[in-house]
Amino acid sequence: MEGGQVDEPEPSAREVDVEVSIVDHENRDMVRTCPRSLRGAFRGLAWRATVIDNLSRDGSLDMLATDFPDVAVIANSVRLGFGANHNQVVRRLVADRSARYLLVLNDDTELEAEAVTRMVRTADRQADLGAVVPTVVDGQGRPAPTRLAYPSARSWLRTDRFDVNEPPDPKGGWLQGSCLLLRVEALREVGGFDERFFLFYEDVDLSARLVQASWGLGTCPEARVVHHGHATVLRPGIAHLTPRQGLRSRYLYFCKHVGPRQAALLSAAGRSVMLARAAKAALTGARTRRPADRERARRLLGLARFDPRKPLAQEAEARAACGDGGSSGPRNGPW
Question: What InterPro entries is this protein classified in (predicted)?
Answer without folding.
Answer: Glyco_trans_2-like (IPR001173), Nucleotide-diphossugar_trans (IPR029044)
